[in-house]
Structure formats: C-alpha cells, structure tokens
Amino acid sequence: MILFLFFCLAYSLTLYGWAFCIVAFLPTKSSSGIAATLLHVISYYMCFIIADPSTPMSVQYAMSILPNVCMAQLIK
Hints:
The chain is mainly alpha-helical and 76 residues long. It has helices at 2-25, 29-50, 57-63, 67-75. The chain is globular. 8% of the residues are buried.
C-alpha cells in the first residue's frame, strides 16, 4: 500500500513538473494552460499505442519519460 501511494505521489509531482516547464516556455497564462492540458491528454492516449504487444521494448522505454505512459506501464 505504501509503495502504491509513493507511485501516486511521484506521478503527481512529475505532472506538476511538466506543467511548470511548459509555463516557463510559453508567454501567456492561457496559452500555457492550454498547452499543458493538450500535452497531458496526448500523453494519456500514448498509453494505448504502447499497449500493443508488437511495440518494441526500446520504444516503450523511450516513451516512459511521459508521466502518463510511465504510470500505465507501472499499472500493467
């Protein structure tokens, strides 16, 4: 149970970090909010691409840099 809570905490911190990096690069609040939301949604759908058994392990490991893909790999 503690390990699962640790993974959830690490997941939330990485999402916060990704959003912070996006805000640092974009000039306005509204554009950075939209970009952060789009990145989150797009990275969520990347989980389904990686779920295919024919996807090479090197691609799966490379995509695990995204928080949503990494969390999906941990749950799987």
